[in-house]
Design goal:
Blueprint: H1 26-37, H2 39-42, H3 61-66, H4 68-75, H5 99-122
Helix pairs in contact: 1-5, 4-5
Length: about 130
Amino acid sequence: MFLALAACSGTSTTGSTCPSSGAPTYDNFGRRFFTTYCSGCHGAGAPNRRGAPRDQVFDTEAQIKAHAAEIDAVAAKGPNASNDDMPDMAGPVRSPPSALERERLGQLLACEAAMSARQAETIPAR
């Protein structure tokens, strides 16, 4: 799906935030989203990556977190931008994510970033 994140132009961060209730998680939204729209090109076992960079594998929550800003800029929707550069519809995906799915993706990425920031605050400095 996220064919060539680095090669995309005209993308913007969405400004999405993590909702205080009913927030999407990797388990209740992300896993299905990435399996449906991304794994065909960005899965470790994808038979034809269609130009997706080798370092952009989105099979796990940790791999998605590592590329969250890039994913947001090409596939998510929020108050500041609606990005639809991915998935590449010439690839294995035949129907793009809905606007609601893109919005939930932006929220998921914002929630993951907020969780990572909270965890970093709780790790004592050495």
